[in-house]
Specification:
By secondary structure, this protein is α/β, with parallel strands linked by helices. The protein has 2 domains: 180 residues, FAD/NAD(P)-binding domain (3-Layer(bba) Sandwich), CATH 3.50.50; 111 residues, FAD/NAD(P)-binding domain (3-Layer(bba) Sandwich), CATH 3.50.50. The protein is 23% helix and 31% strand. It contains 6 helices and 19 strands. Strand 6 and strand 7 form a beta hairpin. The longest helix is centred in the C-terminal third of the chain and has 21 residues. The radius of gyration is 21 Å and the shape is elongated. Bound molecules: NADP nicotinamide-adenine-dinucleotide phosphate. NADP nicotinamide-adenine-dinucleotide phosphate binds next to helix 4.
């Protein structure tokens, strides 16, 4: 089976690429790791910065992207891509189920994965009070006490979501300033049940069978906070492993590519959060997808 484009990843970047590839009549398939996955957006809270579509949940927006691609006849393949093999003028993409497809081009939109905090107790209590997704697990903490760790958009967004469920939310950040956008900071600062612990680091998560407390260091003094849940939101790392040795990555592992998505590997284009860029948002991911589909179409035409 030979495709014009294999899109790896079914988040906003991959789904936007699929819309443009379908409209360009390219023979295309979207490889998705999870059944009907739409990427990290499905775990996000309310989206209010995607032009024209606002006040919807991340899950709903992801479903809209997906149904748009489906309405144009996009083909999906449920399977984890495990390797990319460069062949003459094409690539072979192999999947964990043993299948492999040939393709002229690849749009690589594999996104990022949540980083671990790396403190004692984190691994032991993952799924037992330690979570990386407030939208998925927040409901378990009705009227309870939780902590969110981090200072970016994800952490403050998580604190906002959890404040409407839990009785008390500690927002623990290692610096005196947040990295999150100003509008979000302003909203969270007004929430009466969110307490900010700035210049503070978590050194341990403790419990018995499930989380009961965490230890926070501030100015060399330690404090034990009784909590029922810990939401870790300390950033993400790029899912770029498949491109190692094929396309150039930066020192943090993001795929080096410009707005046209062109990587250093001919016929491979990078879209979305996995690409080097300043602003990782749904709107920039969707724009990347469109640009990559356009670049793939041009590449195929020029290399006929
Ligand atoms: P991020 O912006 O990289 O922020 C990670 C936060 O975790 C930073 O505040 C960082 O502290 C802290 N941190 C990192 N390692 C830590 C450690 N070992 N211990 C304690 N704290 C640690 O990650 P993100 O919030 O997941 O966002 C990722 C990208 O997605 C960003 O570009 C963001 O804008 C975007 N995003 C956008 C939205 C939205 O617009 N609605 C929502 C979610 C994410 P320092 O500040 O000290 O480095």
């Amino acid at each position: 089976m030979m495709y014009d484009v294999i899109i790896i990843g079914s988040g906003p970047a991959g789904l936007s690429a699929a819309v443009y590839a379908q409209r360009a009549c390219l023979k295309c398939v979207i490889a998705e790791k999870l059944h009907r996955g739409t990427g990290q957006i499905s775990e996000g809270g309310k989206v209010d910065n995607y032009p024209g579509i606002y006040g919807v949940s991340g899950f709903e927006l992801g479903e809209k992207f997906r149904s748009h691609a489906e309405s144009l006849g996009a083909e999906f393949y449920e399977g984890e891509a495990v390797s990319i093999t460069p062949l003459k003028d094409m690539y072979k993409v192999s999947f964990s189920d043993g299948n492999a497809f040939d393709t002229r081009t690849i749009i690589y939109a594999a996104g990022t994965s949540r980083r671990r905090l790396g403190v004692p107790g984190e691994a032991e209590f993952t799924g037992k009070g330690v979570s990386y997704c407030a939208v998925c697990d927040g409901a378990f903490y009705k009227n309870k006490t939780v902590a969110v760790i981090g200072g970016g958009d994800t952490a403050l967004g998580d604190a906002e979501i959890l404040s409407s469920i839990a009785e008390k939310v500690y927002l623990i950040h290692r610096r005196s300033e947040f990295r999150a956008g100003a509008a979000l900071q302003k909203r969270v600062s007004k929430l009466s049940n969110v307490e900010f612990l700035m210049n503070s680091t978590v050194s341990k998560i403790s419990g018995e069978g499930k989380v009961r407390s965490l230890t926070v260091s501030y100015n060399a003094a330690e404090r034990v906070l009784p909590v029922d849940g810990v939401f870790v939101a300390v950033g993400s790392s790029p899912n770029s492993g498949l491109l190692k040795g094929i396309a150039e990555l930066d020192s943090s592992g993001y795929v080096i590519a410009g707005e046209d998505g062109k990587t250093t590997a001919k016929g491979i284009f990078a879209a979305g959060d996995v690409r080097v860029k300043n602003l990782r948002q749904v709107v920039t991911a969707a724009a990347d997808g469109a640009n990559c589909a356009d670049s793939a179409e041009r590449y195929i035409f020029e290399n006929k």
